[in-house]
Amino acid sequence: MSIDLTDLRRYRDDPRHRIVVSVDLGKFQDYTAFTISETKPKAHKNVTGNTVSAMHIYLRDIQRLPLGTDYTEIEDQLQAHP
Which class for 39: exposed (0-12), middle (13-18), buried (19 or more C-beta within 10 A)? Predict the structure, then answer.
C-alpha cells in the first residue's frame, strides 16, 4: 500500500475535520509564532440529558521563530510544515 504524499487529508485524523493555521507575525521586538490546530466533533450531554455534538479545537503544533526572521523564511516554514 502506497501513501499519496500530495494528499493533504493524510494529516487529519478524519477527512471531515478541518486544519486551522494561525500566524502572529512579529516585527523587531516581537517573535513570530504559528499554530496548527484541528477541529473535531466532541459529544456532550446537555441539561436535558440529550447528547449534542460540538466542534472543539485541538492544538497539534505551536512554534516560535527567532527574532528577525524574514517574512519569506516564515512563508517557507509554513509551506514546509506537515
Answer: middle
pTM above 0.85, yes or no: no
Q: Cell numbers 436535558 correspond to what residue?
A: 48
**Residues 12-55: pLDDT tens digits?**
666 667 888 889 988 778 899 999 888 888 888 888 999 988 88
Alpha-carbon distance 66 to 31, whole Å?
6
Count of structural domains, the chain = 1
Domain assignment of residue 41, yes or no: yes
Closest by CA position to 70, among listed 32, 36, 24:
32
Domain that holds residue 58: 8-80
d(CA 50, CA 16): 23
